[in-house]
Specification:
Elements lengths: L1 H13 L3 E7 L5 H12 L3 E8 L10 E4 L12 E7 L7 H14 E10 L3 H10 L6 H13 L3 H11 L4 E6 L3 E7 L7 E4 L7
Parallel strand pairs: 1-2, 1-4, 2-3, 4-5, 6-8
Antiparallel strand pairs: 5-7, 6-7
Length: 200
């Protein structure tokens, strides 16, 4: 799970066994809840706050707040991490830049972006799998999401525009990317670290 891997990497780097996280565009909260369960087994405590534009989208189980992802309703340094999963491809480039800036304002350690990678093979695999989807909405949204997604080069450019802070972009299994943007500004390099993709 991309989000779990990113959180574990941050925890190791700062040598922490407990982190607070704001999950943006959280919806029902499935991703942070799964991450919380996986990390608990590994001895890492995750304190979750979920944010979504509509309160009706938010699930229970932890603190939930309705608010705008591009104008986060929190003070500076309110959480260790600010994270989003499968949200960035719904934003245009300027909005991604704004989200990164807002995330860095609100976090103490890092902003985490877990999203799809736009790739021709990825789109072909999605179209090949369409007969397996029962929902008409899913059959429409799946290819649309891949077409709207960013490449790692595009994500690198947006992160660089948002901040001079250190950032790492890794490719993950099944055409996922994980971008970790650190709060500190000690280095200006944006690294792309490849994780082998069995479908490439």
């Amino acid at each position: 799970m991309t989000t779990v891997e990113m959180i574990r990497r941050v925890a190791r780097e700062i040598n922490s066994s407990s982190l607070s996280i704001l999950e943006v565009a959280a919806g029902s909260g499935y991703v942070p809840q799964m991450a919380q369960q996986h990390l608990r087994i590994l001895g890492l405590h995750l304190q979750v706050t979920s944010l979504d534009r509509a309160r009706s989208h938010l699930g229970g189980g932890h603190r939930a707040v309705a608010g705008d992802a591009l104008a986060l309703p929190f003070r500076e340094n309110s959480f260790d991490l600010v994270s989003c999963s499968l949200f960035a491809h719904h934003l245009n480039p300027e909005e991604v830049v704004q989200f990164v800036k807002e995330g860095l304002r609100v976090c103490r350690v890092a902003v985490l972006i877990n999203d799809l990678v736009r790739d021709r093979l990825h789109l072909l695999l999605v179209y090949a799998g369409l007969p397996l989807y029962r929902s008409r909405l899913t059959r429409h949204d799946a290819p649309a999401s891949v077409r709207q997604a960013y490449t790692t080069d595009e994500m690198r450019a947006m992160v660089t525009k948002a901040t001079t802070a250190r950032a790492e972009i890794r490719r993950h299994y099944l055409f996922r990317m994980g971008a970790t943007v650190w709060k500190d500004g000690k280095t200006t390099s944006v690294l792309e670290l490849q994780t082998p993709d069995k479908h490439k």
